[in-house]
TrEMBL record:
Segments forming domain ABC transporter: 338-572
Gene3D superfamilies: ABC transporter type 1, transmembrane domain, P-loop containing nucleotide triphosphate hydrolases
One GO MF term attached to the UniProt entry: ABC-type transporter activity
Keyword set, alphabetical order: ATP-binding, Membrane, Nucleotide-binding, Transmembrane, Transmembrane helix
Statement: the UniProt record of this protein carries the keyword Transmembrane helix: yes
The name this protein goes by in its record: ABC transporter ATP-binding/permease protein
Organism: Methanobrevibacter olleyae
Length: 581
């Protein structure tokens, strides 16, 4: 039951929760073992005080004391070792598991999740929050619960020894914890404040580094850096505020604990005067009150730390509990036609982005999406690969409703050339191999040749082995796009989505790429988004999207004849082709 509570409360695995319980038990035993030296002091005191109080002189047996000291040290060492073993195991194995689980969960989430999510926030949860939680599980939780457990055992012993002094010693403990617990709401508020400020600052830092070129070219650095220093001083202030909020409760609790010793002295003196207890009993309670509050004070600080960390635990649990879009993995497709039937869609319930979309993109044909900016072309292509599911209606591939299919498996059927090409800081060879893991070097080089990469790769110092820098910074826009096309050629999937695939290319390169693309798209279902009308002159079907609706669809010839929006766009582009600056 406790194990299940830990799994639920702290988001641990079952093994992690079991190890944590063992760690807590050993922490309690370790705390209790620290009382054994007190037992030895008491024995020595008894030997010295007994003759003073009229008793017999006792001869201290030194050999026995040495043996007892060694036994006590051995017991403390054994419990401490066990405690470290279970706690550090839990901490680092759990931390690793948590990071893997979070990463795994993110991998399985629909791509739509990442479009509307702050990525700096996700990275911070996986890296920083997990590190902070390591301290929580290796120190705060076991120390707090271990000291509570040992305190209960010691309290029972003290109360059996003398219930009046026992109560005088211990009544402050629950009050101190209640005081701290009452301030919980402020502690959480404080840590939320710090967390939000840290995220805002992290976002701005990232934005600043990513856009340093624009900032410099528009002389905007000074304004931006003063905004950043404003944010960092806000963090400093909110950290101080949060620390103050947490320490107010801890200090109040600690102050209250001091009243325990006062009440032991007052009550003990009264009981001695009335002859109800011996000096020896009084001294035992005085020694106990000098040692017992130390672990409790630490417990108060650990409780404050747990309360501060609650927000981080919740953030990790939130990602772990996000709904993973599952779906069928075992299905057979009847060809690769993509059909939109009565599809309506919006991103955020506020504004309809697509309304009543109906069209068929046939296998073996090129279907071009055109239309004014913001008309919904990219959104249609995202729905075609199930990055998002429609709000109403259905998108199907080979007769199967995409909403019922597993995304990861589904994407095996797609080669997608995105508008913004993402490259990795690796060799050209490996960047192209992303298209098909396990492809041989020869296959990769053949795809690169078809995508017209050869000509620029040969000029690079290490050819295909050249490392191209973060996101391919050593390459031009056109070269990056050709690598992305080479990836798609290597993957050779049955459905091809091209988003502005040739926008960076000059006319000569564009025609070369067009040749490569013609080879790529044979017998496949191709949906292409292109702003330039000449790229899609040979398309089989054109779907014109305007303000989220299909304004018209048909072959290029039919639409020219129709003299509608498409014809207008073609005329406008012909006109702009004659522009001169
Ligand atoms: N992730 C998103 N969240 C919210 N709204 C979005 C998102 N992506 C796009 N939109 C909105 O959806 C509408 C359609 O955008 P979409 O990118 O599909 O148009 P488009 O025709 O491809 O435009 P362009 O030709 O300029 O690339 C726009 O109004 C846009 O603001």
């Amino acid at each position: 039951m406790i194990s299940e509570y830990f799994v639920e409360r702290f988001g641990l695995t079952k093994d992690g929760a079991d190890n944590l319980i063992k760690g807590i038990l050993y922490t309690a035993l370790q705390n209790i073992s620290f009382i054994f030296p007190v037992g030895l002091y008491t024995l020595l005191l008894y030997i010295w005080l007994e003759p003073l109080m009229g008793g017999e002189i006792i001869d201290p047996n030194l050999a026995m004391f040495i043996v007892l000291i060694l036994i006590v040290l051995g017991i403390i060492f054994a419990f401490s070792w066990k405690q470290y073993h279970f706690l550090y195991n839990t901490t680092y194995v759990e931390s690793e598991n948590r990071r893997i689980n979070l990463g795994e969960n993110l991998r399985k989430l629909p791509l739509s999740f990442f479009e509307n999510r702050d990525l700096a926030d996700l990275t911070s949860t996986i890296m920083n929050d997990c590190t902070d939680l390591e301290h929580l599980f290796s120190h705060a939780v076991p120390q707090l619960l271990g000291s509570i457990l040992s305190l209960i055992i010691i309290a029972v012993g003290m109360i059996i020894f003398d219930w009046r002094l026992g109560i005088a010693l211990l009544w402050v403990v629950p009050v101190a914890f209640i005081i701290l617990y009452i301030t919980k709401i402020y502690i959480r508020k404080g840590s939320k404040l710090v967390m939000n400020d840290l995220l805002r600052c992290g976002d701005s830092m990232q934005e600043c580094i990513e856009s340093i070129r624009e900032l410099k070219s528009y002389h905007y650095e000074d304004e931006y850096f003063s905004k950043l220093s404003g944010l960092t001083s806000t963090i400093e202030k909110s950290r101080i505020k949060a620390e103050l909020m947490a320490s107010a409760g801890v200090i109040a609790g600690k102050l209250f604990l001091n009243l325990g010793m006062v009440s032991v002295i007052l009550l003990g003196s009264y009981l001695i005067i009335n002859g109800e207890i011996s000096i020896f009993t009084f001294l035992i309670f005085l020694i106990a009150s000098a040692t017992i509050y130390n672990p409790i004070e630490n417990g108060l600080m650990f409780l404050a730390e747990i309360l501060m960390m609650d927000i981080k635990i919740d953030r990790a649990k939130e990602i772990e509990s996000l709904v993973i879009e599952g779906g069928l993995t075992d299905y057979s497709l009847d060809g690769y036609d993509i059909e939109f039937k009565d599809v309506n869609f919006n991103y955020d319930d506020l504004k309809d982005v697509l309304t009543d979309i109906n069209f068929l993109a046939k296998q073996g044909e090129v279907t071009a999406l055109v239309g004014p900016s913001g008309g919904g072309k990219s959104t249609v292509s995202k729905l075609a690969a199930r990055f998002w599911d429609p709000v109403d209606g259905q998108v199907s591939l080979g007769g199967e409703n995409l909403a019922e299919l597993d995304c990861e498996k589904l994407l095996e059927n797609f080669s997608i050339v995105f508008q913004d090409v993402i490259l990795f800081n690796n060799s050209i060879l490996e960047n192209i191999r992303v298209g098909r893991k396990g492809a041989s070097d020869e296959e990769v080089i053949e795809a690169a040749r078809l995508a017209e990469c050869e000509e620029f790769v040969e000029k690079l110092p290490n050819g295909y082995d050249t490392i191209i820098g973060e996101n391919g910074e050593l390459l031009s826009g056109g070269q990056r796009q050709r690598i992305s096309i080479a990836r798609a050629l290597l993957k050779n999937a049955n459905v091809i989505l091209l988003d502005e695939a040739t926008s960076f290319l000059d006319v000569e390169n564009e025609s070369k790429i067009q040749k490569a693309l013609s080879a790529l798209i044979k017998k496949k279902t191709v949906i292409i988004i292109a702003h330039r009308m000449r790229t899609i002159a040979n398309a089989d079907k054109i779907v014109v999207l305007n303000e989220g609706r299909i304004a018209e669809q048909g072959s290029p010839e039919e639409l020219i004849e129709k003299d509608g929006l498409f014809k207008k766009m073609v005329d406008l582009q012909n006109l702009s082709g004659e522009w001169k600056i």
